[in-house]
Design a protein that fits this description.
two-stranded parallel sheet; binds tryptophan; Tyrosyl-Transfer RNA Synthetase; Rossmann fold; 55% helix; 3-stranded parallel sheet; mainly alpha; 334 residues
């Protein structure tokens, strides 16, 4: 099949600062995909209302996530970069899909059960139907490729179920969407404390954000856990040391990495020096992105143009799908 025919769609909630994990795990892939496919990248502002009903900071957060996407290489002239709430067709499709989604399957969704535990005082219907809204986001563009992480697999499976149920009941409108990423393994960016991955909300001191100032980056890297070093040549690396090398591979030059590998294998490695080097290489990598983000954030006119252009592209695709949907459903009486 001709590659351009595949449609890519993904969303990101505007609920925090993007970090190196988002950059290497997702954004870098999006940047590649925009060259090869018709891409829809969406800021999921409506989804954020299920957990963040206070909208005081929403505008600021939406602007930031857009700026971070652009600074990381998303080109608003190539991909459709837009806000969920600007495409009203999403809400219409969400309503129709809600009639095809069962209370039982929604209640047993892992992310729903997690949220019920996290916010027992706000178990709202939007939270329950979160996967229905996500399915609407995706199939609204009749997308088949959805670049997401492992934690979204269940939502994708539900999107396929809703799409198939619609097709069986009303006629073929939607192709099945699947999780899609380059390579077999998603790049995981380890946190600096040797436990788990970098994260938007957890262990902020072990996560490097695209917004971190140079000094903050250096400090976080210097605090990374190390030990007295290996005592035998070619020892296996403990997890937290392996992680430092993994991080180095993301941002440092090949000869630098080779030097520290060799120092490790010959038991002369100085972790203080290694972390200093890693800190500097991280600063070199992150600071141009951060400065670009700050420049974009100052230019509200540009951000407005980006959002308008993105919404226009997304609405065009959405309108075409919704015509088919209303036709198939028999919601045409005139
Ligand atoms: N639920 C996704 C997340 O938490 C965000 C999202 C919203 C999304 N709509 C989407 C992802 C559509 C992919 C496709 O990360």
């Amino acid at each position: 099949m001709e590659k351009k025919q595949q449609i890519v769609m993904s969303g990101i909630r505007p609920t925090g600062f993007l970090h190196l994990g988002n950059y290497f795990g997702a954004l870098r892939n999006y940047v590649k995909m925009q060259e090869e496919y018709e891409c829809y990248f969406m800021v999921a502002d409506l989804h954020s209302l299920t957990t963040h009903p206070d909208t005081k900071e929403l505008k600021q957060n939406v602007h930031r996530v857009l700026a971070e996407n652009i600074a990381s290489g998303i080109d608003p002239d190539k991909a459709a970069l837009y806000c969920q709430s600007h495409v009203h067709e999403t809400s219409e499709l969400y309503l129709y899909l809600n009639m095809l989604a069962y209370k039982g399957e929604l209640e047993k969704t892992t992310t729903f059960k997690d949220k019920v535990r996290q916010q027992p005082d706000n178990v709202n219907a939007g939270l329950l139907t979160y996967p229905v809204l996500q399915a609407a986001d995706i199939i609204l563009h009749r997308a088949t490729f959805v670049p997401v992480g492992k934690d979204q697999e269940q939502h994708l499976e539900m999107a396929r179920n809703f799409a198939n149920r619609f097709n069986h009941r009303y006629g073929d409108v939607f192709p099945e969407p699947f999780a899609f990423n380059y390579g077999s393994e998603l790049i995981k960016v380890p946190s600096l404390d040797g436990t788990g991955k970098m994260s938007k909300s957890e262990n902020q001191n072990a996560t490097l954000y695209l917004a971190d100032e140079d000094e903050v980056i250096r400090k976080k890297v210097m605090k990374a856990k190390t030990d007295a070093g290996p005592t035998a040549p070619y020892s296996q690396k403990p997890d937290y040391i392996e992680n430092l090398f993994l991080l180095m591979k993301l941002v440092s030059a090949a000869d630098v990495i080779a030097k520290y590998e060799n120092d490790y294998n010959t038991c002369v490695i100085r972790y203080g020096d290694m972390k200093k080097q890693l800190g500097e290489d991280m600063v070199k990598f992150i600071s141009p992105i951060r400065e670009k983000v700050n420049g974009i954030l100052k230019d509200e006119k540009y951000l407005k143009e980006v959002m308008e252009k993105g919404a226009e592209k997304a609405r065009k695709s959405a309108k075409a799908t919704m015509e088919l949907v209303r036709q198939a459903m028999g919601l045409k009486y005139l």
